[in-house]
Amino acid sequence: MSKKHFVSLAIIFILGCMIMIFASVAKKHRTKIEWNGTTYSIENVNSVDAKFARPYNKVLDKLGDGFVVLSFFVACLLILISFVSAKDKSYAFKSAFFDSYTFCVCIFYANGIYRILKTLAGRIRPYMYFVNPSEKGIAKGDFYRSWPSGHSANVFIAFGFMLAWFSLRKADSKLKKPVLSVSFLICIITMIFRMLSGNHFLTDVLSGAAIGFAISYSMAVFCNSIYKKAN
Helix, strand or coil for residue 57? Predict the structure, then answer.
């Protein structure tokens, strides 16, 4: 890899880190919203989102966390399988390292951007329109960070990365259909759990999914274009 291509990839990574840092700083310095203990009126929510709004469910909330971890595990496992099954370990190691780098870039950019949007939007979560909202969400000031859905964004980050990986690197792989099918199923289930747990509205999960996929897929394609020129 030439110095020019290395610098390009390094700059992309650094910018991703900076976006994440900015998102963290913006969240920390945002003016906090204090809840007065009164249940919010669902009448202030648009009819579509109001129809799908649900009270808080801790079990489904935790399951949503688990499915995000599962989606990332599938992506990492895919990289590992590709390395283990390769005959040329030297080349496979370089590919695995680049794939890991690309996945991290996808995570940094998409997470940073959706977190900035959360901070700017300050949308109240669905469970605040019902009795017995999430005590943890209220205590941490997370109850006004509904849009867009971070869980939905993250599972689609993994899906977008894997779709780009198969399309650009392993188009003829036998794993393509089963892995992408499982990954997409994880995405759909996560979105459903985030709504049923009372954490998000329908527009939250759809927006999160679109943001996560669009940024992850485009960044993966962009990084791969640089890697291809370098090799």
Answer: coil
> What pLDDT is recorded for position 1?
67
User: Tokens 């998409």 label which residue?
Assistant: 110
Identify the H or E element spanning 168.
helix 150-168
C-alpha dihedral, 81 to 85 to 87 to 93, nearest 10°: 10
User: Residue 46 is encoded by which pair of tokens?
Assistant: 């648009």
Distance CA 68, CA 153 (A): 9
* 107-138 residue pLDDT tens: 999 999 999 999 999 999 999 999 999 999 99
Tokens representing 174 are 């036998």
- Pull the structure tokens for residue 226: 């640089």
Instruction: Provide the terminal-to-terminal Cα distance of the chain, rounded to the nearest Å.
Output: 6
Owner of token pair 């940024």: 215
Give, for 60, the enclosing helix (H) or strand (E): helix 58-85
Token pair for residue 26? 């913006």
For every residue of 63-93, DSSP letters joined together read HHHHHHHHHHHHHHHHHHHHHHH-S-HHHHH
The answer on pLDDT for 227 being more than 90 is: no
Over the range 78-88, which residues count as b (16 or more CB within 10 Å of their CB) and which as e?
bbeebbeeeee
Q: Are 211 and 113 in contact (CB under 8 A)?
A: yes
Neighbours of 199 (CB within 10 A): 28
Residue 82 in tokens: 């590709």
**Class of residue 142 by CB neighbours under 10 A (exposed 0-12, middle 13-18, buried 19+):** middle
DSSP 127: G
